[in-house]
Amino acid sequence: MVGEGVLHECLLNRNVEEVLVINRKPCGIAHPKLKEIIHANFFDLSSLASQLIGYNACFYCLGVTSLGINEQQYNHVTYELTIYIAKLLCDQNPDMAFCYVSGAGTKASPNTKSMWIRVKGKTESELLKLPFRKAYMFRPGYMQPTNGLKHTQKIYLFVGWLYPVLRVVFPKFVSTLKELGLAMIEAASTDYENSILEVKDIVALAKNQV
Q: What is the rounded CA–CA span in Å between residue 86 and residue 161?
C-alpha cells in the first residue's frame, strides 16, 4: 500500500524525472516516467547493480508486519534485507538520499521489550551510519489511503471514515499517504536538515510540495 501510494505521487510530481521500481511481480502501471525491473530474489541484486547507477534518491517502502512471525524472521526482512540493499545502493550512488519508511514509535533502544521497535530502531541506526548524501527515517503513524489505488489494506475500508476525527484528535499520529509521498520527495530534493521525521515533520514537508 505504501509503495503504491509513494509511486503514485512520484509519477504525478513535476520534480521527479524518472522512477525505477524493483518488484517481484509487475505493478500493472504504465507511465512514461516509469521503468520496472522484475526480480525474484531481493537478497541478491548483484546482477542489477549496473542498472542502479545514476539515481539521486531511494524511497524504500518494502516491509512486513511483525504479527505472526518471530524475531528472526522479522529481522531477516526488516534489518538484513534493508541494510543489504542500502549498502548496494550506497556503493553505486554515494550522492543518493535514502528515504526509509519506518514507523511511529520507533526508538534506537536495544533494550526495549517490543520486538518490532527494537528491530526497526537497529535498522534506522545502521542506515544513518552509511555514507549516503543524506538518510531520512520516516516514522508515519495512521496513513489515510489515496483514493483509487489498488493495494489499500482492508482495515482502512472499515476505519477510513474516522479519518477527519482522528486527524483532529491525534494530529501527531495521523497523516495521509499522499503527504508521506510528497514529504519524501521534498526531503530528497532539498536536503532537509532533520534525519528523523515524525508525523508532524511529514505533514509540514508535504505542504512545500503542494
A: 37
CB atoms closer than 10 angstroms to residue 111: 6
Model-level pTM? 0.92
Tell me the three state secondary structure of residue 131.
coil
- Parallel/antiparallel/unpaired status of strands 196-197 and 134-138: parallel
Q: How many residues does the chain have?
A: 210
Would you give the DSSP letter of residue 78? I
- How far, in Å, CA of 202 to CA of 139, rounded? 8
Blockwise average pLDDT, block size 10, the chain, 210 residues: 95 95 93 96 94 95 89 95 97 94 85 87 96 96 91 81 90 95 96 94 91
User: Nearest CA to 97 among 196, 191, 198?
Assistant: 191
pLDDT reported for residue 157: 77
Going 125 to 50 to 188 to 39, the CA torsion angle's sign is negative
Q: How many angstroms separate the Cα of 75 from the Cα of each of 96, 114, 172, 208?
A: 25, 13, 27, 35
The rounded distance, in Å, linking the Cα atoms of 52 and 63 is 20
In sequence order, what are the residues at sequence separation of 6 or more whose Cβ sits closer than 8 angstroms to the Cβ of residue 7?
19, 21, 27, 29, 34, 181
Listed in sequence order, the DSSP H helices in 76-148 are 82-92, 115-129
Local structure of 188: helix, strand or coil: helix
